[in-house]
């Protein structure tokens, strides 16, 4: 595994003294503007910051890891964090958690903070806005172990923990088909994000396999798969002349929205419309009728991410920077999708 860039390394690359480098980065008046600019550009290029003196402590294990999550108030991410913390506690690591709030700008700022902190590795779920990964490439240059989970960078070789989104969505949609649904809708996540692209692909593949029509009007994309967006989508389905008789939702929040809006409109769930969600949030077992959903094994994903990261930190001789681990999911069948035999 490559080591982090030190002040001496930077000085050697620029053929300047370490003291000159230090003063240039501190914007000292004794250093000319041209030299300052050259030093700053090279420092940015190789991933060095003034606080990269952390490199001198590299052999002194801090037993600390950083976590970047989109939102801790989303049950999926809180479960992932629980899995990470559980494994970290058992192995003597401390964790520091940051929220990007699904903002690309905020995510970039967090990476700068973590670069200057004494963490030995980082676990990340990308923000919904992130399409450029340059801010993470710095960590690779620094030799900082990095693991992505769930929303992972498609064009960056890195350690990734994912679930089988395509197969999960295919299974969920096929379950609706086997319960005599012929006109199946899909409330989709942002198509800027690979996991939601894969869920849409799984949905359409199941329809194709069973020779059912793919109606673009029944596929409603959202930005954040929020409860409120689910309400909007459910009302759009209600307004259709030919309503769906099945709905596969890319998460449980939108599925709960559909159940509540449809029931309020006098539609029987699952007799008239069968519903399937994704993630197995606690509310899926509380809502009436109980929601059929995909268990995405969030806690196990957190454990797997922490296990992989600590292995990268501790086993430098066998360091692998681009391992992908795919976790299998399971469909939890409940009342919302089981239609009576008379309706089959």
UniProtKB/TrEMBL annotation:
MF GO annotations: DNA-binding transcription factor activity; transcription cis-regulatory region binding
Source species, domain of life: Bacteria
Domain HTH lacI-type span(s) in chain numbering: 5-59
Keywords of this entry: DNA-binding, Transcription, Transcription regulation
PANTHER family xref list: HTH-TYPE TRANSCRIPTIONAL REGULATOR GALS (PTHR30146:SF109), LACI-RELATED TRANSCRIPTIONAL REPRESSOR (PTHR30146)
Protein name, entry field: LacI family transcriptional regulator
Species annotation: Marinoscillum furvescens DSM 4134
């Amino acid at each position: 595994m490559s080591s982090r860039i030190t002040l001496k390394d930077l000085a050697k690359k620029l053929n300047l003294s370490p003291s000159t480098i230090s003063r240039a980065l501190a914007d000292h008046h004794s250093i000319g503007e041209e030299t300052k600019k050259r030093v700053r550009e090279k420092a940015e290029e190789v991933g060095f910051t003034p606080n990269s003196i952390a490199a001198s402590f590299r052999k002194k294990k801090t037993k600390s890891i950083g976590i970047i999550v989109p939102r801790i108030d989303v049950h999926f991410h809180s479960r992932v964090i629980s899995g990470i913390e559980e494994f970290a506690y058992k192995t003597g690591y401390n964790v520091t958690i940051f929220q990007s709030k699904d903002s690309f700008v905020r995510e970039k700022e967090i990476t700068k903070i973590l670069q200057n902190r004494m963490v030995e590795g980082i676990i990340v779920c990308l923000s919904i806005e992130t399409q450029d990964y340059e801010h993470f490439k710095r960590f690779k240059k620094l030799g900082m172990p990095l693991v992505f989970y769930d929303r992972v960078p498609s064009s960056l070789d890195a350690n990734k923990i994912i679930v089988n989104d395509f197969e999960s969505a295919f299974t969920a949609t096929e379950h609706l088909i086997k319960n005599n649904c012929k006109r199946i809708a899909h409330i989709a996540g942002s198509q800027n994000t690979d996991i939601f692209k894969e869920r849409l692909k799984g949905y359409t593949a199941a329809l194709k396999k069973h020779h059912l029509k793919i109606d673009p009007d029944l596929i409603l994309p959202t930005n954040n798969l929020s409860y409120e967006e689910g309400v909007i989508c459910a009302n759009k389905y209600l307004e259709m002349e030919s309503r769906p008789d099945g709905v596969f939702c890319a998460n449980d929040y939108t599925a709960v929205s559909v159940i509540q809006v449809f029931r309020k409109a006098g539609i029987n769930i699952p007799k008239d419309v069968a519903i399937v969600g994704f993630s197995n949030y606690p509310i899926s077992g509380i809502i009436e009728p109980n929601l059929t959903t995909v268990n995405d094994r969030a806690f196990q994903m957190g454990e797997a991410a922490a296990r992989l990261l600590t292995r990268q930190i501790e086993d430098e001789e066998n360091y692998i920077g681009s391992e992908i681990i795919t976790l299998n999911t399971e469909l939890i069948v409940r009342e919302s999708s089981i239609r009576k035999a008379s309706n089959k």
